[in-house]
Every structure is written in structure tokens, then in C-alpha cells.
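HUMAN: Forgive my ignorance: could you write out one protein's sequence and C-alpha cells?

ASSISTANT:
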Amino acid sequence: MKIKNKGRKIYKTKEKNYYGKSPVGKAFSVGLTVLLIGGIGFLGYSAAEPIINYTKKKGDKDVAAVTTTVPVTTVDENGELLPSDETNTVNSQNPAANEQYRAYALSAADLSSTETIRTALKRVPSGEDIQYIEIPLKISGGKVYYASSVNMAAMSGAVQTPVTLYDIVSTVESAGYKPAALISTFNDNILPATYPDTAYVTIDDGSKWIDNNLEDGGKPWTSPFSDSAVSYNADIAQEAASAGFEKVICSDFVFPEFRQSDIAYLGESVVANDRYMALTSAANMMYESIVNNGSSMMIEVSAADLLKGKKDILQPMLLSVNTMILNIDLDEISGGVYTADTVYEFSGTPSENVDKMLKLVSGDLADFNVAVRISGSSVTISELLKAKTEISSYGYDSFVIG
């Protein structure tokens, strides 16, 4: 239930010189400097290697080794440094050598059969070097768009289509693309209707919490504090990874909107400062399941959510995942984004709105590799592609269209 707030703001948019030393003294000074630099370099390398090995995440690709030439330093008989054209070649690590991700996303409506998938693949824009096709296997709300063998998916009525993962993967690969799975996690209102232990429950009698009155469309949410809910999402992710999806993108690591009255029912844990640990723990469990089955994982976050302050999942020191997909849904932001004291208006063209949103939220993702998804069913493909050109000025070259 939205609470009106008054007074909202509208967002408009020395170099050292050595004197008086003898030749021997100069030579000694230079020699000592060279030894000191060499010693520091050795210690630095010795310390850096175990740190790099420790911080490298499982499933990450090695950064590319590049060769760098450095000048050889020579000293004359008086101890003076002399210029030299001679060089040595050394290896260094290039931290910018990240894999590009260029994808096109299908819709849930495209997954009713292999034929509808083939038809949808004909819409992939040419000239964009698209390599991956994102398949929405589980969408926000909890519906599952493949014939899942996960028991809880079948028993809860979440499964919406008979098409198999094998059919999806083979159809995408036959068209010359690589399959990527898109899986919504905790924005799930279907699972807790059948399995109450996966829902948020009240602290007094353990009854299922809903986000509004029943007559106003209130619904339960899947809780990251529930072991059963976390395992369910991990099972869906494992099923996708083991079926041949090269990448698994997991979205909706979010909490519902809690009113003060909800906190009285649910307890302070749902709004505690450390609640993000439930999300990061769930994400890391899914990461292990995905990587152990030969795939890699990324997390998708909503640009509108970030603007509203919903950033719980952005914990780079805790997450095993290091790539975020920022979803700028042009439909979602077209009516403005409302926070407690500000209205952010997005009334420009798709390109202008993408640029404006990136100015507002790109800083939140500074600690991650980033791909930008530009989506919206009310916007044409040509408009999405034109808006996509805005991302390069922010240093991004990976994208998802649709």
C-alpha cells in the first residue's frame, strides 16, 4: 500500500636534485636506489600473488596477460643515469580485459513451444554482434516457463509451458546463439501459496504474511530467510546450468515494501541493517550450484529499485558474483520513480531517459563489472538500439536488448 508524502521535490533534470656529491657518492646513491626499488618490487610481487589468488572468484576467467616494454637504466663512470634505447619486456595483468556480453532477451510469451521460440529468434536485430539469447525461465511473480522437474515448481502450479530445457537450448544453439537463463528469485507469489514455510510469517502465530489486504489484491512473498525458498531457487538455477545454459542471470534479490504495521507483525529482522546477508547468502548458494554445473552467474538489478534505495544485494565484499546487469525498464520509469521525498521524472525520449538514469545510478555499481539491459514492451527495437548507444559514454560495452 502506497503512503502519500507531502513536499516531494521534483528532480530536473618535485622532483629532487642532488648536489655536491662526488662521483663515487653518486654511483653509490644510484646503486642503493636500484637495490631498494628491486627489493620493493620483489616484496610487492611476493605479497600480491597470494592476495590475487585469494580474491579471484571461482568461475572467473583469468585476465589477459599483456607485454609491456620498460627502458633499461644505465649508469656512466661518474654515477650519472644515462638514457637508453634498450628495453626489457615484462608481463603484466590487464584488469580491463573483461569478456563482453551482448544479448537479446525473449519474452515469456515466446516460450510456449519450440516454434514460437524459432519465430522470436527471427526478431534478433542484426548488426549488433549479439551472441547470447536470454530466456526468462522464471519471471517476477513466480511463473516458470519450462517443464521443470523441480517438484515444488510442479506442485505449486508455477509451470506454465510443456517446452523442455533441452528443446530451448537446442533451438537457440541451432540458430547460432548461446543460451542464457533469466531467473527471478524472491519476487515470487506462487510458491508460498502452496508452501507456507517459504513465505514471510508473523512472529506471533507463524501465519503467512501478505503485502496488502486480500480485497486489495494482497499476496504473499517468498522469503530469503526461508531455507526452503533458497533451496527452491538454487534447484531451478542448477537445473538450468546443467541443461547447457552458458550463463544464468538471477534477478529480484529484493525485499517487499514493509509498512510500520508490517514490522509489528514480522519483527525487526525484516528491516534490520544486516538483512542484506540473507540475500547475499542466497546468491552465493546459487552461485555455487551454477558454477559447479559448468555455467557462470550474473545478477540483474532494477535501475528503478536502485533509485528508490533498494540496494541490499550490492555487497561486493560478500558476493561471489562480480557482474551486475542494470535493467533500465523504460515502461517502468515512464510514469516517474517515486521515493519518500522526491519524484524523478523520465519524460524524454528513450535515449534521454537511459542517459538520465545512468547519471543517477551508475555510481552504485562502481565495484562491479556492468552490463546494461534496456527493456520495455512499449518501445520499438529501433528505439531500444538507439538508446543503447548512450551506455558507451559511461564506459559500458556489454548490453542486453529487450
Q: What stands out?
A: The mean pLDDT is 82. The longest helix spans residues 23-55. The longest strand covers residues 65-71.
